[in-house]
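Page 47, continued from p. 46.
Same chain as before, 223 aa.
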Amino acid sequence: MTYFLPIIAVLLSFVLVIVLKPKNKEHFKLLLAFSGAFLLALTVFELFPEVYANADPKTVGLFVMLGILLQIFLEFFSKGAEHGHVHLDSEKSSFPWLLFLSLSVHSFLEGFPIENHSHILYGILVHKVPIAIILSIFLLGSKIPLSKAIFFIVLFSLMTPFGSYVAANFEWVTTFFTAINALVIGVFLHISTVILFESSEGHKFNLRKLIVIILGITIAYLL
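Result:
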């Protein structure tokens, strides 16, 4: 299930967009806010304690910061697709390689902590669904041929399971597992906090978003 659930989540999201044909990604802001809170809480509750227990705190902090910087770098190419924004030219018909590669690196890294933390799988699934829906809306609404859009989504769906497979089957991962997890924590921190900051809509009070954020944190704590 570790390998199949991320694939199913992405592919079903793509099919959902084909069937329902939603045009406005704004409808998914509440789901995004929930996913950001849920992922952030799971990172704090599950990943932080382990990495700081198994390594020098300053070294862990260094790799966390490197993860944040890595995600900032990746977003120069993905234009923020990891947190629900796709600002690429929808008139182009060529395959969006930069978007694909940046999202693939992000998704590949997501797969590493799943090997030792099954609850993180739920956080990644909740994170992937709204992102996959928004990404699918962009791909299907652009000039990119349907065959290329399907190719993109299928390959994208395989990246997280591939990361989990590498974590489970390559010895070098064991040697650097804490450092890799700290790097992933940095990626998760950046993604989830950006989602939460953006969901505030100019810092206006929004009761519905506050409720789903509290709900996401509460469910993560109870897992």
